Amino acid sequence: MKLWGRILWTLLSGSRGRRGAPQGWAPNSWKPRSSLSGQLNATEVVSHWTQVFEQRGIPEARKSSEYIVAHVLGAKTFQSLRPVLWTKPLTPKQLQYIQELCSHRLQRMPVQYILGEWDFQGLSLKMEPPVFIPRPETEELVEWVLEEVAQRPPAVGAQSGPLILEVGCGSGAIALSLLSQLPESQVIAVDKGEAAVRLTRKNAQRLQLQDRIRIVPLDITSEGCWTHLLPWGPIDLVVSNPPYVFHKDMEQLAPEICSYEDLVALDGGEEGMDIITRILTLAPRLLNASGSIFLEVDPRHPELVSSWLQSRPDLRLSLVAVRKDFCGRPRFLHVRKSAA
Predict the structure, then answer these.
(1) Is the pLDDT of residue 236 over 80?
(2) C-alpha–C-alpha distance, residues 1 and 28, integer Å
(3) pTM for this predicted structure
(4) Stretch 109-131: mean pLDDT, rounded?
(5) What whole-number percentage of the chain has pLDDT above 90?
(6) Could you give phi then psi for residue 291, rounded to 5 degrees?
């Protein structure tokens, strides 16, 4: 699953698609080959749809086919299927279901939405458009936060686990991953999107983590929004994968992203800093005396954020570490609050 997540993220460098199906494609303009009505096994069906996807210019044609066929057969991946299922003839009902799902892929719908679920940090999360699909880079952000928490000595008189604020919870991937791996932690998850708030609630209940998370519909760009969070503070950590795409780069997003995901969850304004600076402005009011902020950002942002923080000494925040992602790009920031 992680491999496909990496592949999907590379689509950010692809061509921009219009809302809906790609140009030249009508949903009912293609019919499957008649051979699919015969006695075909899973391997043959994967090969068939791989060829169709390749002919239609669908990225990662084989991976798409394998995930869809595996899903219909009740598995996460094609490789995890019992070998006997690779050669066992599929039923007409199974073939029809595969055709329906593949027709969505032909319209450039992301596999995560087609399957309706995706794995993140070992958790199976429901996925629903247009809520932002978590990328594999964000798994690395969670891993860094966990490392930092493990290295910190417990504060005198503090709770046994950290109180964490996630800004822009989306599907709940970050918040629920931290809760599942920090059994004594608590999370406040905020998002201004109604669909995101609903999906995070669903995923929290699905994973039976609802008792340790408060999910708050909140727009952090609104005046005085921080006052809604004060009653639950002070907060130990703020974690966010905020909108950070430079506005000029939005035109380069792939059809899978432009047509289905919430673009508000990606567009960070002219320099991708609009929400980042908002988080950094609000955080000092909510964090405890030695609290930290962990952010996922664009590789161009570490220098921009450092300069911005130097221009705002009143915030008493310092950029203390930058970490690279699996492609070697500076992707994650650790900002710490300093004593007055």
Answers:
(1) yes
(2) 30
(3) 0.86
(4) 97
(5) 81
(6) -70, 160
Mean pLDDT value of segment 76-88: 93
3-state secondary structure of 224: coil
Distance CA 1, CA 125 (A): 12
Structural contact between residues 291 and 337, judged by C-beta atoms closer than 8 angstroms? yes
Question: Active site residue: 241, 243, 294, 302, which one?
Answer: 241
pLDDT tens string 149-206: 998 866 544 557 899 999 999 999 999 999 999 999 999 999 999 999 999 999 999 9
Contact status, residue 194 vs residue 266, Cβ threshold 8 Å: no
Q: How far apart are the first and last CA of the chain?
A: 45
What pLDDT does 340 receive? 62
Closest Cα partner for 170 from 239, 265, 91, 95?
265
Distance of alpha carbon 288 from alpha carbon 231, whole angstroms: 13
Average pLDDT score, the chain: 88
pLDDT of residue 155: 55
The answer to whether residue 120 is catalytic is no
Per-residue confidence (pLDDT) for residue 318, from 0 to 100: 96
Respond yes or no on whether the N-terminal peptide bond of residue 330 is cis (omega within 30° of 0).
Answer: no
Active-site residue among 53, 120, 132, 294? 132
Q: Is residue 89 annotated as part of the catalytic site, yes or no?
A: no
Residue corresponding to tokens 């999907």: 8
Active site residue 241: yes
